[in-house]
Amino acid sequence: MVQRRVHGHILPGQYTRPTTTQKRAIIQRAALELFQIHGFKKVTIREIAREADVSPVTIYNYFGSKERLIREVVRSVMLDTVARFRTMMEEDRPFLQKLEDIVLGKTELVSQYGGELVQRVASEDPETQEFIRDLYSREIEPMIVSFFNQGKKQGYVNPELSQEAILSYTEILRHGLMARPDLLAGSRKSARLVREFMTLYLYGLMGRSTN
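Below the sequence we write its predicted structure tokens.
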């Protein structure tokens, strides 16, 4: 129900009309909740409208199409994930603890969306691809560099490794995990597997330098 104003005051017991920004956020949140349960393909605009308590026309007015809404939801989730990772990296905790949290955070994200979100992000959609490239170079890459500099200072990462090698190896691991979301299903087994990935990531198969 829309609030009525009298001499600039809002009458008690009423609700204010959401702003355009708030409505867009409500729609995206409703869409995300449905996507989590049913996946992107099965959810309809009408179902999202019902969940968000708006008309389908409103969704089309704000987003233009279901595909555009999906892109916006994906972008929002990615930005939220980057923010969570940034918070973890800035915490005053040992390097290995933060690395485990970051990797398990990826596991939780992949598991939560059944792999479909990852596939959408890794798709050939030009707008999504451009967004990923920009986000990686502007936000993610500097965080990775800073994070592994911490690891070097704490003695976990070989100080002789170049920034280029670390970034390239991280990208290889990231694409590998994205290609096999079934490995990261949120079970105890997958959690153990992630920790083993982390050990391999840091120390390799031999567990020591070959020099």
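The CA atoms of residues 135 and 211 lie 36 Å apart.
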